[in-house]
Amino acid sequence: MKQVLVLGAHGKIAQLVTKNLLAHDIQQKLFLRNSARLQIEDPAKEWLIEGNATSLFDLQQAMTGSEIVYANLAGEIVEEARNVVAAMKAKGIKRLIWISTLGIYDEVPGNYGKWNHEQLDGGYLETYAEAASVIEDSGLDYTIIRPAWLDDQTEIAYELTYKGQAFKGTEVSRASIADLVTKIILDPELYLGESLGVNKPNTDGDKPAWYN
Ligand SMILES: NC(=O)c1ccc[n+]([C@@H]2O[C@H](COP(=O)([O-])OP(=O)(O)OC[C@H]3O[C@@H](n4cnc5c(N)ncnc54)[C@H](OP(=O)(O)O)[C@@H]3O)[C@@H](O)[C@H]2O)c1
Questions:
Q1: Exposure of 26 in the CB half-sphere (CA atoms within 13 A)
Q2: What is the tens place of the pLDDT at every residue in 26-41?
Q3: Using an 8 Å Cβ cutoff, are 149 and 208 in contact?
Q4: What angle separates helix 174-186 from helix 12-21, to the nearest 10 degrees?
Q5: Pocket flag, ligand 1, residue 207 (CB < 6 Å)
Q6: What is the DSSP secondary-structure string of 138-157?
């Protein structure tokens, strides 16, 4: 059975992906800080591994036996990116799905782009951009995912833009991002070497709807 390592498994999107994958023949290693927070639903398919993505040692230990790494991380994102790349290379794992954010290429046009900078500049956007370039320069088989502003609606509705294209829309559900990640884990040839903007169709505007 194919094995995926989920980094940041207590994250909101990650938990949706985990639930989706339970319906498939996939083994999941769930890597998180403070593992007491997560309950396993199917012990034949899921393991908890406590660890910190700022620790190369923890990551290398966790990667043994995995074919795919899905990183749903936050925080010290540049250090985490470097460690994930180094651990994957040390373990000979090629396939990485990396959750990033909109705006890392200054690809968000118009007033929304300006607003997004106002909200995210000053440490977040810059470090997420640097982390993404670590991934892009890694030589790994990566897919970077750049979600619009996230909400917790259950609706799955999304469209994609590619690196070099202007970002579309303002918002997207975590359930939509989880759907995309699940599809890639099930078919790892999808979106190889791509950096994908992901938005809900017809949500163009100056801000996500809940800010209006
Ligand atoms: N909010 C938005 O509108 C928006 C839009 C675009 C992109 N994003 C980005 O999308 C990503 C995923 O979103 P989400 O909603 O799933 O985020 P989330 O719930 O905050 O999940 C991120 C996870 O990263 C884990 N993490 C942070 N540092 C770690 C470390 N050193 N070692 C291990 N795990 C670590 C956190 O662990 P703990 O549970 O231990 O803290 C958390 O569970 C985030 O990077 C977020 O910034 C957000």
A1: 25
A2: 999 999 999 999 999 9
A3: yes
A4: 50
A5: no
A6: S-SEEEEEEE-EEE------
Residue given tokens 């100056």 in the structure block: 206
DSSP 73: -
142 lines ligand 1 (CB under 6 A): no
Instruction: Give the DSSP H/E element, type plus range, for residue 27.
Output: strand 26-32
d(C-alpha 176, C-alpha 166), whole Å: 20
CB 145 within 8 Å of CB 177: yes
Topology of 2-211 in CATH? Rossmann fold (3.40.50)
127 close to ligand 1 (CB < 6 Angstrom):
no
Distance in Å, CA 2 to ligand 1 centroid: 24
Confidence of residue 1 (pLDDT cuts 50, 70, 90): confident
Whose tokens are 């979600």? That residue is: 147
**Cβ count within 10 A of residue 194:** 14
Rg of the chain in Å (alpha carbons): 16
> Which stretch of DSSP H or E encloses residue 83?
helix 77-91
pLDDT at 113 > cutoff 80: yes
C-beta 103 within 6 A of ligand 1: no
Residue 109 has pLDDT above 90, yes or no: yes
Q: Would you state the structure tokens that stand for residue 146, as one six-digit string?
A: 């750049």
